[in-house]
């Protein structure tokens, strides 16, 4: 099987390692880089996967998954450039960074696939969206789908849509967490104990997500099924519309898209 190195073992990098192991990969088929020795030792102890430096990762692994923060990409590319070759596939999980950045900084013909995952990867429920760079083949995309399929769902889009994807699904979990937090606070305001409010709202969120995923119904249809004439739900919906919640979400997601574009442009020179 393909050998995979995860460059950067933060939360997303660790989640990918855990998912790959759960999906049947052997520890000897995996490796990772990590700049903090204490964390590296803890991960090796927990997962049985060896920690390596970047040149060793390039030498021993076919797939290099770059899982560092966008602002930390330059030192990684500087380490990769002298040792990488087209035999390595680079899989970038860095928000906002285009495949053209890697293609410009790395030797000619190195294949790159851009990915926008999200944090539900930590529980095996990621939404990962992939796009091929100029030198990535259909076989490379299939391999990346296989790798990321161990930690959730995977779809393909043109790279021109990746900044919008970052705003929608990459940042998306944070919007849901924000809404859940507000709804729990509302429960407390109405006199419900916090632990009870948390249980009510979290399970409602889980159930609503399952209905969306399993019924195939449009969100409007499902919402209307709860909205009785002159009932409690329509009164709440009226207040949400009066306070511009829909417009605020549109503006927020547009702002996230713009920031993703800015992250990419910061590395154009």
UniProtKB/TrEMBL annotation:
GO terms for molecular function: pyrroline-5-carboxylate reductase activity. Its EC number is 1.5.1.2. One of its GO terms (cellular component) is cytoplasm. The gene is proC. This is Pyrroline-5-carboxylate reductase. One of its GO terms (biological process) is L-proline biosynthetic process. Belongs to the pyrroline-5-carboxylate reductase family. PROSITE patterns: HIS_ACID_PHOSPHAT_1, P5CR. Residues 159-263 form the Pyrroline-5-carboxylate reductase dimerisation domain. Catalyzes the reduction of 1-pyrroline-5-carboxylate (PCA) to L-proline. The keyword DNA-binding does not apply. NADP(+) binds at residues 67-70. Pathway: Amino-acid biosynthesis; L-proline biosynthesis; L-proline from L-glutamate 5-semialdehyde: step 1/1. It is an enzyme of class 1 (oxidoreductase). The keyword NADP applies. Keywords: Amino-acid biosynthesis, Cytoplasm, NADP, Oxidoreductase, Proline biosynthesis. It catalyses: L-proline + NADP(+) = (S)-1-pyrroline-5-carboxylate + NADPH + 2 H(+); L-proline + NAD(+) = (S)-1-pyrroline-5-carboxylate + NADH + 2 H(+). It is found in: Cytoplasm. Residues 3-96 form the Pyrroline-5-carboxylate reductase catalytic N-terminal domain.
